[in-house]
Amino acid sequence: MQSPRTVAPNISWARLRPHIVGWAFISPWLVSFSFLMVYPFIASFVLSFTRYQLIGEAQFIGFENIQRMLFEDERVADSLRVTFTYVLLTVPAGTAISVLVAILLNQAVRGIPFFRTSFYMPSVIGGVGLALLWTTILAKNGPVNAALGLVGIEGPNWLFETAWALPSLALKALATAGAAMLIILAALQGVPQHLYEAVELDGGGEWAKFWHVTLPQISPAIFYNVIVTTIGVMQSFVEAFIMTNGGPGTATLFYGLYLYRQAFEFYRMGYASALAWMMFLIILALTIINFRVARYWVYYEGEE
Amino acid sequence: MSVLTASWTKSKTTQRRLRDLLAYTLLAVGFVWFIFPLFWVIMGSLKTFEDFNQIPLRIFPSELYLGNYPSAWNSVPFGRYFINTAIIVSLSVVGELISASIVGFGFSRLKFWGRNFLFMVLLSTMMLPFWVVIIPRFLLYRDIGWVGTWLPLIVPSYFANPVYVFLMRQFFMTLPSELDDAAKIDGCNELGIFWRILLPLTKPVLATIAIFSFINVWTDFVKQVIYLSQDSTYTVAIGLAFLRWQIAQGDPVPGLLMAATVFTSLPMIAIFFIGQKYMVRGIALTGRTGT
């Protein structure tokens, strides 16, 4: 008569145990997921409908922030224009460069490890250091203008002229796209050799190999890079903050920089939250569009 | 016949040579494109003020002038900033390693309710923009009195960064499950399997995570500038930004800025050379460099 009482909990403990242990192992992430992801994600949505300047209580103001952001604050439109332009200047060109450089680094010539190291190295410096480095490269009397001077062109003061400031930042981004290049290189090295041999048997040349084998095979890696760099570039901040301070005028006023100023210089936490949520929605939309378009150009193994 | 073969081989080698020539030319262009900025800044750090105003612009310094380094080092309290940054970085790296390996083990070697779903959730949070969560995080840290301290920069490292969890999980998945079974038969529980059997095998991926998180924390200017507010707590990146704004306000010594850029980049470059192998593998695996 006693056995059911003692056995039953044991069985359920034996059943429960792996689940409890599993959840215990992932609990550190569950903590950060709850407190540093889910909570802030919801809280910033709620804050979007308030006025809150760090002191006192957050005041509910309905759609005032959203109305201001969408229809009244011209800076928002400016910064969105700047950010989209920056995405268009850096993502397609950066993708093309990363593919070309990766193909170059995949050639069977001597000294490749040396070149790979030197191509990737500038991107590890990162952040403020890299921004300062490019500030000196693009200075009025810097090496870029000296090189232009050799062919008789008087270069502009890159970072301080409205027309050139944003392209200058884009140039910097293109010269430091090391990680993307390495991802493509890894994909290239994973292309099965027998596919190339098949093209050779069919009498195809180098171009056919590239077009019918290499490109489809590395397209998932390219797609991945496009997604990740688009999301990253949309959030750009440090380049503008350090190199141009958003100027001249609003020429390099990235959306991230504008958001930072609203939040941490003017302490408009409610308004900045509304801006942040709009950024989230825009990035989400861009990612969805990217996935839709991917159907037409990304090749996945085992798909017809 | 033999003549034909000979000429065919010859043209093949010529073609091959042309190809190599083209490859090296392009590699040289790439080399200049990627490395010249770094070279320029190193040369610039060794130039005197006069060197910068010469026409035509000189690439090499007129003399080996080392004075920029001490002036840059002393123009901002870099000594203290280096120590501060080293403390923040080393405590963060330890946290990332511990938490990512524990959580990565859970997601790869254990079976439990909701595992696959939660892992999908974890992957999707990697796409969540930083800016959408930063304001409530800031308010949260302020409410518990952490703003102005290093805690917001360090403590989250102990709660598993999704990118490193992913890296860890991918690695654990490659280890044979027989290892776990054998250990279980020997009476090992999950913690024992994790700590004694599998963790010693993950050294390469731990190295990758250590390098990524070192570089990411060291260069994470945004968080540092948001959370820190007193000179005694500032970091190297903030020091560099100070230097930049001093220059913008008319300090006329470009060599000083360049010297500061060089010595603040040295830890990154050193880590890169030590751990290049692990970094390359990690990037290939996760497709990113962290955070």
Automatic annotation (TrEMBL), chain A:
Q: Which InterPro entries match?
A: ABC_transporter_permease, MetI-like, MetI-like_sf
* UniProt keyword list: Cell membrane, Membrane, Transmembrane, Transmembrane helix, Transport
Instruction: Give the record's GO biological process terms.
Output: transmembrane transport
Q: What is its main location?
A: membrane
The record's section on Gene3D superfamilies has: MetI-like
Transmembrane region positions? 20-42, 84-105, 117-139, 164-188, 271-291
Q: Topology versus the membrane, per the UniProt entry? A: Multi-pass membrane protein
Subcellular localization, as worded in the UniProt entry: Cell membrane
- Which terms in the GO cellular component ontology are assigned? plasma membrane
Sequence ranges assigned to domain ABC transmembrane type-1 in this UniProt record = 80-290
Which domain of life, per UniProt?
Bacteria
Q: Into which family does the record put it? A: Belongs to the binding-protein-dependent transport system permease family.
Q: What is this protein called?
A: Sugar ABC transporter permease
UniProtKB/TrEMBL annotation, chain B:
Answer yes or no on keyword Membrane.
yes
Where in the cell is the protein located? Cell membrane
Q: Where are the membrane-spanning stretches?
A: 21-43, 81-105, 117-138, 144-167, 201-219, 255-275
Where does the record place the ABC transmembrane type-1 domain? 82-275
What are the GO cellular component annotations?
Answer: plasma membrane
Q: Which InterPro entries match?
A: MetI-like (IPR000515), MetI-like_sf (IPR035906)
Main location per the UniProt record: membrane
- On the tree of life, the source organism's domain of life is Bacteria
Q: Name one GO biological process term.
A: transmembrane transport
> What range does the record give for the signal peptide?
none
Report how it sits in the membrane: Multi-pass membrane protein
Which keywords describe this protein according to UniProt?
Cell membrane, Membrane, Transmembrane, Transmembrane helix, Transport
Q: What family does the database annotate?
A: Belongs to the binding-protein-dependent transport system permease family.
Q: What is this protein called?
A: Carbohydrate ABC transporter permease
